[in-house]
Amino acid sequence: PHRPLSLHIIKPKMGMTPEDTAEQVHQTCLGGVDMIKDDEMCSDVFNCKFEDRLRAALEAVDRAAQKTGKRPIYFVSITDEVDRILPKALRAIEMGATGLLLTYSAGLSALRVLTSHPDVRVPVLLHASHMIAAQPRIAWPVFAKLCRLCGADLMLTPTYWSSIPMVSLEEGLRTAQVKLAPWQHIKPMWPMPCAGVYPGLTEILVREYGTDIVIPAGGGMLGHPMG
After folding, report:
1. How far apart are CA 4 and CA 70, in angstroms?
2. Is the pLDDT assigned to residue 101 strictly greater than 90?
3. CA gap 6, 118 in Å, rounded
4. How confident is the model at residue 221 (pLDDT cuts 50, 70, 90)?
5. With 0-12 CB in 10 A as exposed, 13-18 as middle and 19+ as buried, what is 212?
6. Percentage of the residues of the chain whose pLDDT score is greater than 90
7. Is the separation of the CB atoms in 44 and 57 below 8 Å?
8. How confident is the model at residue 39 (pLDDT cuts 50, 70, 90)?
9. 64 Cβ contact list (under 8 Å, min separation 6)
10. DSSP SS3 for 205
11. DSSP H or E segment with residue 8
12. Could you confirm whether 224 is annotated as catalytic?
């Protein structure tokens, strides 16, 4: 309740086998991370099938939990052709998935169908990277409202301090605010200041956004001298 949540992004984006992924999941679980997610580029590839990766990652979480007593959420990527997303989500949940990752490129309708299903009772992380193309025409807070309305539980948030400073400092803060602000019966969702974020930015991000955020770090955490 008194600090941001941390989220590890599996890196590199492609090429990892289920065993490689599981080892990285295990190490970051031992390090104390709160959440872990697939990279948004990864779904089903020849050397890392969706079910194999999920099974290996969940086993790694279990092994680490035996030492730490903590069980981080693992967001498995279910982005696919529209007619495959919900079946993959239900299969993942059947296998024990604790979180689902969907990219914006799948579309708002796909997100709405996913989050509306009565058997999808795990958090859904919406990855916003493909919104960048529309950024000159649609403000990021508008995207955030649409995704919140469609049921996302977490959503990446642009920040001025990232390696891709897409928006002004003010627009980044406004985006976080519309995710948390009261809005009739619509639940809030977690802001996630992102893109090239590393441990050294934590103090700045907390000072500007407060503690009701998730700080996602992939290469910026894995490349840190302390690991």
Report:
1. 16
2. yes
3. 28
4. confident
5. middle
6. 61
7. no
8. confident
9. 25, 26, 29, 30, 70
10. helix
11. strand 5-9
12. no
Question: Would you state the structure tokens that stand for residue 155, as one six-digit string?
Answer: 């959503």
If you average pLDDT over residues 111-116, what whole number do you get? 97
pTM for the model stands at 0.93
Q: Largest Cα–Cα distance of the chain, in whole Å?
A: 49
Task: Indicate the average pLDDT of the chain.
Answer: 90
* Residue 11 appears among annotated catalytic residues: yes
Catalytic residue among 67, 130, 185, 187: 130
Dihedral angle of Cα 79, 224, 34, 140, to the nearest 10 degrees: -50
Strands (E), 10-127: 35-37, 73-77, 99-103, 124-127
Q: Comparing C-alpha atoms, which of 10, 35, 40, 37 is closest to residue 23?
A: 10
Using CB atoms within 10 Å of the CB of residue 187, give its burial: 0 to 12 exposed, 13 to 18 middle, 19+ buried: exposed
Give the H/E segment covering residue 108: helix 108-116
For residue 72, count CB atoms less than 10 angstroms from its CB and return exposed for 0-12, middle for 13-18, buried for 19 or more.
buried
Instruction: Identify the active-site residue in 11, 49, 117, 145.
Output: 11
